[in-house]
Structures are given as C-alpha cells and as structure tokens.
C-alpha cells in the first residue's frame, strides 16, 4: 500500500489533487507511514473520509411505502461464503464454535460452489447469512452485509465493529450482532427460535418497506465521486499529514 515507487516521478502540477483511495481495513494495509504529507484527500469507507464511499447503503424507495414484504422461499438455515480462510481470524474462530450448535453451509474457494455462480441465488435460499468481516474496525462494513446478506434477503449475523457503528448505517432491527449474545450457543439458540417463528423472523425485513439496498459499484462510482470532488474543491490546498493516525483510529 505504501509503495512510493508507483507514484509519478515527474514534477507535480501545483493545482493537481492527489487522492489516497483504500478500501481495505487497517489490518490489511501497510506502509502508510511513507505516505504522510503526500496526498490532498482521502477516499475510503471511513465516515471521516474527504470522499466517503461505503461498500453499500440503504436507499429510500421512490414509490409509496409498501405494506407487505415479499421474501424468497427459504428451506435452509445458515450460509457463509468465505474465500480467505485463516484460522487466526476471529470469524473462523467463531465459526468453529458456532457450528457445534447449528448447521452452517459454507461456500467458497475450498468449500461448496455457488449455485450458478450467483451469490444472490445461493444465499436467498437461507434464512441467515454470516456477514463476518475479516477484521474488526470502525465503519469497516463490506459487501458481506450489503450484497451477500441484505441483497439476498437473508438476515445478516454480523461480526465487525460494535452494534452502535452498524446502526449508523441501517436500522437496529435489520441485523443480528454476535456481541448481543453471551456465547455462540445462545446465538445458535436464538437463530433456531427465529427460524421457527415466522412473524418474528419477518420483522428483520421491515426496512424493505421504506428502503432498497444499493451496493456500490467498483470502480465507476468511485471515479465519478473523485471527479465531482475535484471540481468542487479545485481551490482547496489541504494536505493530509496524519494519514496513518487517522486511518488506524
């Protein structure tokens, strides 16, 4: 991430804006100490970015509020899609503990194959999806929540930043946070209870009456946002001098 050799060697035009763009978490970002005082703006998933670009968000529906919520027919219980398996990650540790009490169908590079290579088609068959982030940092809420779970009409069971951080982006009754339970056994018991109680289960989709999911498109939306920011702030002279401290906080 901090490879200075990739930066242009020619003299930098006086009014040219340089944007540091990164969508990995601090755990998977290195070399930032070499980038202090180089960039003018930041673009990332962090709320405090100069150009804030989340992995997704809930978008208000233009039509009238729907009184009913239609869900795909679901015969299966819990799904998880993972491509980077690391036994040291908190999500893998929790998976091994949780699977003792509830069956979990795992998809990914070394597990089951997605149905027709489609995330939505696969996960929509399940009542719950494990939206476990590969590391836990403020605002680091990725497509695992927005596309894999909400976009597939499965209730997300989240492992990431605290519940209060998730509630900045979506209603508190739209997801299940692992921190709300004293043990994986209690979490599994609650999931089984919801699966057998349709009225309570469907409450997790009340957000669908007023909102729809928007999953940010890489990279078209990012380029457009950068262009708009450059036009709007072409006379700004800011330089980011505390990049590592800001991003890792």
Using only C-alpha atoms, the radius of gyration works out to 20 Å
Order of helices and strands: EEEEEHEHEHEHEHHEHH
CATH architecture of the largest domain: 3-Layer(aba) Sandwich
Strand content is 15-25%
- Helix content class: 10-25%
State the CATH topology of the largest domain.
Rossmann fold
Give start-end ranges of low-pLDDT stretches. Answer: none
The class by helix and strand makeup works out as alpha/beta
What general outline do the C-alpha atoms trace?
Answer: globular
Q: What is the total domain count? A: 2
Mean pLDDT: 94
Main sheet summary:
5 strands, parallel
Going by CATH, the homologous superfamily of the largest domain would be Glycosyl transferase family 10, C-terminal domain
Total number of β-strand segments?
10
Which helices and strands occur, and which strands form pairs?
Blueprint: E1 19-21, E2 41-44, E3 51-52, E4 56-60, E5 76-82, H1 90-98, E6 105-108, H2 119-123, E7 126-132, H3 143-149, E8 155-159, H4 163-166, E9 176-177, H5 184-195, H6 198-202, E10 211-215, H7 220-232, H8 243-248
Parallel strand pairs: 1-2, 2-3, 5-6, 5-7, 7-8, 8-9
Antiparallel strand pairs: 4-10
């Amino acid at each position: 991430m901090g490879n200075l050799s990739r930066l242009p060697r020619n003299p930098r035009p006086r009014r040219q804006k340089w944007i540091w763009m990164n969508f990995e978490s601090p755990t998977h970002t290195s070399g930032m100490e070499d980038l202090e005082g180089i960039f003018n703006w930041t673009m990332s998933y962090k709320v405090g970015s100069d150009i804030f670009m989340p992995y997704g968000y809930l978008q208000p529906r233009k039509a009238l509020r729907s009184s009913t919520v239609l869900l795909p027919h679901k015969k299966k219980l819990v799904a998880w899609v993972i491509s980077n398996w690391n036994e040291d990650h908190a999500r893998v540790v929790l998976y091994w503990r949780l699977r003792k009490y509830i069956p979990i169908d795992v998809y990914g590079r070394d597990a089951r194959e997605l149905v027709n290579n489609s995330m939505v088609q696969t996960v929509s068959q399940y009542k719950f999806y494990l939206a476990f982030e590969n590391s836990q940092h403020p605002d680091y809420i990725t497509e695992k929540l927005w596309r894999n779970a909400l976009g597939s009409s499965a209730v997300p069971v989240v492992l990431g930043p605290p519940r209060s951080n998730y509630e900045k982006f979506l209603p508190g009754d739209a997801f299940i946070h692992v921190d709300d339970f004293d043990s994986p056994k209690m979490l599994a018991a609650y999931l089984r209870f919801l699966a057998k109680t349709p009225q309570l289960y469907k409450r997790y989709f009340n957000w669908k009456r007023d909102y729809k999911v928007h999953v940010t498109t890489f990279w078209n939306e990012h380029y457009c946002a950068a262009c708009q920011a450059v036009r709007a702030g072409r006379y700004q002279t800011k330089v980011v001098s505390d990049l590592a401290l800001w991003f890792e906080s």
